[in-house]
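Can anyone check this?
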Amino acid sequence: MEVSATQKNMSISVAKLRLIVNSLVGKNVEEALTILQFMPSPWAKNVAKVVRSAAANAENNFEMDPTGLRIIRVNIGPAPTLKRYYPRARGTAGPNFKRHSNMTVVLDQEAT
């Protein structure tokens, strides 16, 4: 049975978030948390928080063994973009797009 946890409107672009998450798919939850702990990105803490939340959902809501959980899928998609403008030469304005993203972590029991 698949268990998931979602975080919405993270103020990081989808491309930057994928760099963090690509190494986690197929890993055990404890191994993924160890990898995230030593990543240099400040957003690795937020990704670890979502992984821990999915593991807690599996343990508390579906009575799964937390030691046998594996990350099977991480869905990352765009959230609404904030459009801001900054001043340029001769009274014009330049666009500044502040991109956001949504992330869903899906866990499942390891086949024993």
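Reply from J.R.: I decoded it. The mean pLDDT is 95.
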